[in-house]
Amino acid sequence: FVAFNTAFAVGGAFVFCATSFERQRVLYNQAAGSGGGFASCDGTLLGNTISSNSASNHGGGIFDFGSGSIENNFILANASGGNGGGVHSVGGDFFNNIVVNNQAEGDGGGLSAVTANVINNTIWANTAVGNGGGIASSLTATITNCIVRENVSDNMTLIEQQLFDSAIPTFSALIEDDLGESTNIIDDPLL
To answer: pLDDT tens digits, residue range 163-178?
Structure first.
């Protein structure tokens, strides 16, 4: 249990970490810069609850996670004053996570600036004041077999509220599919 820490720069709970964090609760941490929960890390985040963290800049829950792996985590109710309410800047693998109810004052309520393999995730009910309530600015990501629905951002079409300036998902459940990808479904997954 890691809670109620404050950083005056980056990484409310952890910074410059290159190890494995498993089955922990990282809650109510704050960063005056970026990364309310984690910042500038490589390694593995596995089976954690990363919730209610905040950052004045980017990445309310996670910021600048390099080539490591983020798997089987609950990333919820984090907030950023910039981009990536839940997660900003991930370059490794992003598998089997639930990203829900995160908020960004900029772009990407759930995820932003992701170059990772984004596979088997639920990205649901995130909010961005800017663009892409679900995922933003992630053109080089691979988005496969994900549920990306019910995300909200200002003045966007339904699909742009889910995905903005991002790779086209395949084999995923979307709120609508004006993307021209026939492998996606638009039916409600009944979560």
So the answer is: 888 887 888 888 765 6
Paired tokens of 73: 């985590």
Instruction: List, for residues 45-59, the tens digit of each pLDDT value.
Output: 999 999 999 999 999
**What is the bridge-based pairing of β-strands 54-55 and 74-76?**
unpaired
Backbone φ and ψ of 187, nearest 5°: -70, 150
Half-sphere exposure of 104 (CA within 13 A, CB side): 41
61/79 Cα distance (integer angstroms): 7
pLDDT for 93-129, tens place per residue?
899 999 999 999 999 999 998 888 899 999 999 999 9
- What order of strands is seen across the sheet that includes strand 103-104? 6-7, 30-31, 54-55, 79-80, 103-104, 127-128, 152-153
Q: In the Cβ-directed half-sphere of 35, how many Cα atoms lie within 13 Å?
A: 20
67 touches 43 (CB < 8 A): no
DSSP symbols for 107-162: S-SSEEEE-SEEES-EEES-EESSS-SSEEEETT-EEES-EEES-EETT--HHHHH
Extract the tokens encoding 143.
Answer: 């988005």
Total-model pTM: 0.91
Return the amino acid letter for 105.
E
The pLDDT of residue 180: 62
Angle at 31 between CA 28 and CA 35, to 5 degrees: 90
pLDDT of 155 higher than 80: no
Is there a contact between 115 and 137 (Cβ–Cβ < 8 Å)? no
